[in-house]
Amino acid sequence: MQPLGIHETILYATDLVAAAQFYRKVLGLPMLAEEVGQLACGFRLPSGSVLLLFDAAKSGRPGRDVPSHGAIGPGHIAFTIADETYNDWLMHLQEHGVEIERQIDWPGGTGKHARSIYFRDPAGNSVELMAGDYWAHVEATRT
């Protein structure tokens, strides 16, 4: 028995409105609710998983309906993109004034390689767009 996938991922931001606007307008993710809440906001990905943005100071308070949680410092999230859209994403990010922090060409497990674009969201979280599957290479080298 094992988990089937990641249901939700959480990043933290002190300015939820700015972070929500970034994920909605720059990355094109649809929001789960029309308004950004005081505590959090969420986005549904085509895979069905959910990205939540929380205010760490508020989500870390004890006595909430769910266990408190929070993180200090920038987090990281990697989104899968289609290989053929890699250059389109580079242009799209540049058109939105997003500074590309780094690009990496990863080795591939089946003769294919993976490529990543790294940048920051308004809260300072590291965001990655990956074309290909780097982890398939890692798994292949283990066998």
Structural class, judged by helices and strands?
Answer: alpha/beta
What count of helical segments does DSSP give?
4
- Give helix % range: 10-25%
CATH architecture of the largest domain: Roll
Give a quick account of the main beta sheet: strands, pairing sense, barrel closure.
Answer: 4 strands, mixed
Oligomer description: single chain
Strand order of the largest sheet: 4-7-6-5
Give the number of domains.
2
Tell me what portion of residues adopts beta-strand conformation: 25-35%
CATH homologous superfamily placement of the largest domain: 2,3-Dihydroxybiphenyl 1,2-Dioxygenase, domain 1
CATH C-level label of the largest domain = Alpha Beta
Q: Tell me the distance between the termini.
A: 22 Å
Per CATH, what is the topology of the largest domain?
A: 2,3-Dihydroxybiphenyl 1,2-Dioxygenase, domain 1
Radius of gyration: 17 Å
The average pLDDT value, as a whole number, equals: 89
**What characteristic shape results from the CA principal axes?**
globular
Give the tally of β-strands: 7
In the predicted model, the low-confidence regions spanning at least 5 consecutive residues are: none
Taken in chain order, the helices and strands follow as EHEEHEHEEEH
Structure, explained:
This protein is α/β, with parallel strands linked by helices and 143 residues long. It folds into two domains: 1-73, 2,3-Dihydroxybiphenyl 1,2-Dioxygenase, domain 1 (Roll); 74-143, Roll (2,3-Dihydroxybiphenyl 1,2-Dioxygenase, domain 1), CATH 3.10.180. 24% of the residues lie in helices and 29% in strands. It has four helices and seven strands; from the N terminus they run βαββαβαβββα. It has helices spanning 16-26, 56-59, 86-95, 134-142, and strands spanning 8-12, 40-44, 50-54, 76-81, 100-106, 114-120, 126-131. The strands form two sheets. A four-stranded mixed sheet has the order 4-7-6-5, covered by helices on one side. The protein is globular. The model has no long low-confidence stretch (mean pLDDT 89).
